[in-house]
């Protein structure tokens, strides 16, 4: 076994698990129930210290904690599943570790050693194994996050932080077709901004426009570029793919889009099945034209929380694009990802990491 470069994790288990009080086999809504424990680690004096797993509890926060005022807060999202032999599995946790540090760089926050990130997740998930739902489409959602907890008023990087992991069982996601509002007034991100980091503030900025889109009967916002309001960026908490004339396209990572781990996995799955996938700038006009000339075949959002979400419509006050009702290739991608995560399909990519 590889020796850890990080201090060992102290585990204080709960006296009595609450898992029996939660019906894991019903449609449990992600983010509403939390597992018994949390992982916590403190950044003080320039180093991460005291990694521990302890009963889930409130974390005392000073009213001047800098995350509350200046928004130094980043997070990750990923899922754990059970393999066929009951082993808890993590999906590409190394990628989340890398992305967390990418976000940390942008937000002036410290790196977390990648081996500590992955080891903390493994030990946390091994301890919370009984919280992993087994139904198709279900998983244990994991939320690693880092925030500035130094009490200070003034604009500079904080000197103390907390890194925490919590878990929330997420019920079966039955893929439902979604309608996207192509937003031409508000923007989520600009090149040079924080859009390619998983920074809490990006989501705060998206809340009100998403409410407006929902009030108009849409499920999510389709974000466009901040300059021309024509280049397609991403959706809510998903990246986006289109199939036009047999080939897949997805917006390139231009500097304002989150590099989704589902996105990179979808690209690998599609290419492994012989599909051409191109990452490039995509305009809304181009999708309208493909719809009009009959070459627009499929479209879906891809992200950890929802998996693969078929798109049935993109619209706004000026236009409506309707998508074909059949999504055979998107269905194949969804089934492949789910099968790899539950070990019902061979993990040819070596993505699943046992948590034990
Ligand atoms: C803004 C945004 N885009 C895309 C994604 C998809 O990323 P992933 O596939 O890593 O979940 C997410 C979810 O994390 C997101 O919040």
Description:
The chain has seven helices and 18 strands. The protein has 356 residues and is of the alpha+beta class. It folds into two domains: 165 residues, D-amino Acid Aminotransferase, Chain A, domain 1 (2-Layer Sandwich), CATH 3.30.470; 164 residues, D-amino Acid Aminotransferase, Chain A, domain 2, CATH 3.20.10. The strands form two sheets. Strands 1, 2, 3, 4, 5, 6, 7, 8 and 18 form a nine-stranded mixed sheet that branches. Strands 9, 10, 11, 12, 13, 14, 15, 16 and 17 form a nine-stranded mixed sheet that branches. The structure holds pyridoxal-5'-phosphate (PLP).
Task: Summarize this structure as a short list of keywords or feature phrases.
356 residues; alpha+beta; D-amino Acid Aminotransferase, Chain A, domain 2; nine-stranded mixed β-sheet; 24% helix; binds pyridoxal-5'-phosphate
């Amino acid at each position: 076994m590889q020796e850890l470069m990080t201090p060992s994790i102290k585990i204080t288990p709960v006296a009595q698990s609450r898992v029996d009080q939660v019906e894991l086999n019903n449609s449990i809504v992600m983010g509403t129930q939390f597992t018994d424990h949390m992982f916590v680690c403190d950044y003080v004096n320039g180093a991460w210290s005291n990694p521990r797993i302890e009963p889930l509890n409130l974390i005392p926060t000073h009213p001047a904690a800098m995350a509350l005022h200046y928004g130094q807060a980043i997070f990750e999202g990923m899922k754990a599943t059970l393999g066929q032999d009951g082993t808890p599995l993590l999906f590409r946790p190394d990628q989340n570790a890398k992305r967390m540090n990418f976000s940390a760089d942008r937000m002036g926050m410290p790196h977390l050693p990648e081996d500590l990130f992955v080891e903390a997740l493994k030990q946390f998930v091994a301890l919370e194994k009984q919280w992993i739902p087994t139904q198709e489409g279900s998983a244990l959602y994991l939320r690693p996050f880092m925030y500035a907890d130094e009490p200070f008023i003034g604009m500079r990087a904080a000197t103390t932080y907390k890194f925490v992991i919590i878990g929330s069982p997420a019920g079966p996601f039955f893929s439902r077709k979604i309608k996207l509002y192509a937003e031409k007034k508000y923007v989520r991100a600009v090149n040079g901004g924080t859009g390619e980091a998983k920074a809490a503030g990006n989501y705060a900025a998206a809340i009100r426009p998403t409410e407006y889109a929902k009030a108009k009967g849409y499920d999510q916002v389709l974000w466009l570029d901040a300059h021309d309001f024509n280049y397609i960026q991403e959706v809510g908490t998903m990246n986006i793919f289109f199939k036009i004339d047999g080939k897949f396209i997805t917006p390139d990572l231009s500097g304002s889009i989150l590099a989704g781990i589902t996105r990179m996995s979808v690209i690998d799955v599609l290419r492994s099945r012989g599909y051409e996938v191109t990452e490039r700038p995509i305009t809304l006009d181009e999708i309208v034209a493909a719809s009009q000339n009959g070459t627009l075949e499929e479209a879906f959002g891809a992200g950890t929380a929802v998996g693969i979400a078929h798109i049935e419509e993109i619209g706004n006050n000026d236009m409506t694009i309707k998508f074909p009702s059949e999504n055979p290739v998107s269905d194949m991608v969804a089934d492949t990802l789910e099968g790899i995560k539950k070990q019902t399909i061979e993990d040819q990519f070596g993505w699943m990491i046992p948590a034990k």
